[in-house]
Amino acid sequence: MMTYMAAVLLGLSVLTLQAEQDYIDPVPEVSWSFDGWNGTFKRDQLQRGFQVYKEVCSSCHGIKLLRFRELEAIGFTAPQVKALAASYDINDGPNLEGDMFVRKGLPSDVIPGPYKNDNQAKSVNNGAVPPDLSLIVKARKGGANYVKALLTGYMNPPVGITLRETEHYNRYFPDHKIAMAPPFVADDQVTYTDGTNATISQMAEDVTAFLAFVAEPEMEDRKRAGFETLLYLAFMTLLFYFTKRKIWKDVK
Ligand code: HEC
User: Do the Cβ atoms of 82 and 66 come closer than 8 Å?
Assistant: First the structure.
């Protein structure tokens, strides 16, 4: 009996230990315009989000799955996209002499990331590699809510927790110690041209919405196709029902 109770107690304490280790603060829910079966992206928000990505995140993170011309889907005009692409230098080659060369970006290029390779990324970030953000909203549990929470979740470490010089305390990061310094340090870090107030929360929300778009640029088409399929199925169901009634009406 005693050994049985001891075993139960041991089991319980192992369980609580595990629960503590898994513990991350619950991520607050944001009501995103793109939530739900008919949610859509807001073009002005995506444009602000791209601006935040470009001015704040792109020095450390790439979005290598996005091509410049896909920015037309968030409301940039073709000439704007062309000018934006041309402001980037792209390594290309080899040319006919076998040499690599640098040229201006074209709308068909993927947006180049900040590093030549992971080793370079590591060496300038104290050993941590900033992940490519193309699919991050899909790759993390909690999705967009998590990403926004992470960006705004920095705080002083609770008493008793010591951080290394390269670590920062974040409420929402698994194990709380993250190698990314707080990307937002003050309101108005970017200047929005549409008059939106650039609070830290607003910038975090805008860049997260943009990253949700990058992770699934075809989301709106997918939802529309899903809805149309349902309509079609409902119509066919009615059609078959009345056809059946007609065919069988003389059979009692
Ligand atoms: C100075 C470089 C730097 C900047 C600027 C920066 N990050 Fe990071 N970021 C990092 C590093 C390094 C990591 C890896 C952290 C780790 O694994 O501890 C990271 C990780 C992340 C993660 C992944 C967290 C996870 O769950 O694994 C996200 C999301 C992220 N950054 C988003 C952003 C966004 C959005 C911006 C711009 C608003 C930004 N970062 C700006 C360096 C940076």
Answer: no
